[in-house]
Structures are given as C-alpha cells and as structure tokens.
Amino acid sequence: MPIPTSSIGAGAGPFSDPFAGAATLNLPPSAPFVYLASVESGSVRTEGLEQPTWLPELAIFRLNPGVQGVEVIRDGQPRTAAWQMALEARRREGWVVIDPQLTVPAEYLPEGEPVGPYWREEAVYYKRSGIAGTRYREVWSQRLPSRRPTAPPRYGFDKAAFNRWLCHLVEEDLIPSPDAMARAEVLDQLEAWASSQSRIPDSSLRSQRDLVVADRLELHRTARVIDPAALAAAKPPAKRSRK
User: Fold this and answer.
1) Distance between CA atoms of 217 and 197, rounded to whole angstroms?
2) N or C end of the chain, less CB within 10 A?
C-alpha cells in the first residue's frame, strides 16, 4: 500500500455529522508515519521468538506538514513531495527508512488482519474538537473491547507478531541489527542499574533481587545476534531446472 496521496480527513467535511454514514472512532485524526531503524539502538526480545534475540528499536516518524522537515505542499504537488527531503535527511543521519509500501506477510500479522502495509487507516471523529478525519495506526495495535460504543477506544499491542516481523526483516538484511556498541551500552545500563539496587537492608529481598539481576544480565549476554550474511551463506544453492 503506497503512502496515501489524499488529504487527511478527505471525504466528509471536517465538521460533518459523525453519525451520518460509516461508523467512526472517538479519536483525533493523525498523520501517516514511517518506521525508522538504526544500529545505535536495540533490546533483547523474547515474546513470540524461539530464543532471546537482539532486535532494533523502531522509531515512528509522523509525516506532519511543517514539523521536522516535512514540507507544506503547494496546490498541484503530489503529497509525497512533502516528506521526500525529510526522509532523505533521516537517511543521512544514519536511519534506515522502512518502506511503507512493504507488505507484511500474514504469518507476522495479528489474527484477522489482512495482508498489507505496516499501517492501517481508521475513520475517526474526535468529540472534544468536533474534527473528523483519518487516523493511522500500527497494524499490531489492536482494538480492545470497550464498555460503551461511544467511549474512546483502547488498544493492545501484539508484541509476539511484531517481534517475529522484526526478526524477519533483520534476517533478510532489510534493517540492521543493533551493533556491538549498542549492545554494550544496554549491558552497561543494566549493570549500573544493578549497582544502584545494592542498598536493600532485607537479606531475603536482596537475595531475590540478585537472582533477578543475574538472570537479566545472562539473558542479554547470551541472546542471539542475527548475522544476515551468515544466514545467506548457510542457505543451500537454488537448484537449476534441467531443460
């Protein structure tokens, strides 16, 4: 799915009756976004994975006109012109921009979500402002049951499916794994936190704390580091068909 070319809130007017036509959610409209990845940040993740694995922490870059280099386009310009230079600036800073047109395979999606991009559009009407429009959410952000249909919706995040997708992207060398310096910084932070917790007077609580800290440190020291080049070299060569 390409980045939308229509204006946010296109369709019904921004002050139109929210109860006329399709049902809408009680949330403010938002701009579309892209995911950014970097070798400089990461964490060890376990949920949904076969073993603890170092994976990057993705940043969400909202494409709000007039903010962080996203331009306000003139009449006749394609909407993509608004954020081309902003995204190029992020690339020069070392970020990897994950293509919003990238299709997320079904095995990495929450149950019931169709195959498509990593963002999804929802029609919204925010009661506090009276503004209708479109809201863009991460596909792994799933709506939870509400007590009342008119209540602001609540969301949960499918960490297991998201982690599997991240792992897939790193294995395919589409985004970088956290580098050695980033991993060392996380370990240093954990060790510093452990040292700050040393003044616990109760010996039983201190013993429990020591076990938790030791387990966390061991988890991070032994977690899998994905090497896409090694994975590619280990794959058997494709068989040529005989004609």
Assistant:
1) 14
2) C
The residue whose two tokens read 């870059």 is 61
Give the global pTM.
Answer: 0.80
Phi-psi region of 238 (alpha: psi -120 to 50; beta: other; left: phi over 0): beta
Query: Which DSSP helix (H) or strand (E) runs through 44?
Result: strand 42-45
| C-alpha span between 178 and 186 (Å, rounded) | 10
| Gap between the Cα atoms of 224 and 54, Å rounded | 6
DSSP state of 118: S
What pLDDT digit, counting tens, does each position of 17-29 carry?
Answer: 444 445 578 888 9
CA distances from 219 to 29, 190, 193, 224 (A): 40, 11, 15, 10
pLDDT digits (tens, 9 = 90+) for 26-84: 888 998 899 999 999 999 999 999 999 999 999 999 988 887 778 777 776 677 777 78
Please state, as a whole number, how many other Cβ atoms lie within 10 Å of the Cβ of residue 134: 20
Q: Which of 180, 140, 143, 168 is nearest to 60 (CA)?
A: 140
Distance of alpha carbon 31 from alpha carbon 8, whole angstroms:
7
**How far apart (Å, rounded) are the C-alpha atoms in residues 30 and 177?**
30
Q: Which of 3, 13, 1 is nearest to 62 (CA)?
A: 3
CA distance 200 to 70: 50
Task: Report in angstroms the alpha-carbon separations of 109 from 1, 121, 162, 164.
Answer: 15, 16, 7, 9
